[in-house]
Structures are given as structure tokens and as C-alpha cells.
Amino acid sequence: MAAQFLIKSGSSSLTSASVVEMLLNTRIFVGYALYGISTLLLTLALRDGELSLLYPVISLTYVWVTILSFVVFKEAITFNKIAGIGIICAGVAMLGADRKS
Predict the structure, then answer these.
(1) 5 touches 72 (CB < 8 A)
(2) Torsion over CA of 75, 6, 58 and 19, rounded to 10 degrees?
(3) What does the alpha-carbon distance between residue 66 and residue 77 come to, in Å, rounded to a whole number?
(4) 82: left (phi over 0), alpha (psi -120 to 50) or beta
(5) Which whole number is the average pLDDT over 60-66?
């Protein structure tokens, strides 16, 4: 989630779509580095965890990103976004409940 926010905030200062400019932008670079670290941690989690449980939990990132985008970037929260968040949360809850049985 922090990676997404760093990339979003860093992208606002880009003057072109140059790969070099993106890599020299500290926020974007750190954002990409955090994505790399999260991929490594996910690999470790998948070693002993269930893929069908871990990926739904990762989908909760959409919920937090929507909320923080509203707070930090003043992005609109529409009815469709709220409905989508509800569906994601319900789906994660259902998959989690299935795990207990």
C-alpha cells in the first residue's frame, strides 16, 4: 500500500514517461523497491500458507487504498467504489469462514 502511494505521489512530478526519470525519482524508486520487498515476503508466506487464503487477504489492499486515496489525494468515493469494497470484504469474510470449517 505504501508503495502505491509513493508511486502515485512521485508520478505527479514527472515531466515525461522516461524510464530513467522514473528511476531517478526517489519516491517512485522507493515505491518500486517496496513492491519488490512485498513480493519476497509474499513468496515466504506462500511457502507455508494457503494461496486460496493469502490472496483474498491481499485484496483488502483495495479497501485501504480507496480510503487513503480519499484522505490523502482527495479522490472521490463513489457508490460503485463502496459497493466494490463491500463485495471484497464479504468475499474475504466468506473465504475466511470457509477456512474455519
Answers:
(1) yes
(2) 110
(3) 7
(4) alpha
(5) 88
Cell numbers at 67, concatenated: 480510503
The x, y and z cell numbers of residue 58, run together, are: 491481499
Residue 41: name the closest of 66, 60, 64, 58 by CA.
58
- The whole-angstrom separation of Cα 99 and Cα 74 is 37
Residue 98 in this model has a pLDDT that exceeds 90: no
Using CA atoms, how far apart are residues 2 and 86, in angstroms rounded to an integer? 22
Cα separation, 4 vs 30, in Å, equals: 10
How far is CA 22 from its chain centroid? 19
DSSP-based three-state secondary structure for 80: helix
Contact 96, 89 (CB under 8 A): no
Q: Can you tell me the distance from the alpha carbon of 54 to that of 97, in angstroms, rounded to the nearest whole number?
A: 14
Euclidean distance between CA atoms 57 and 64, whole angstroms: 12
pTM of model > 0.85: no
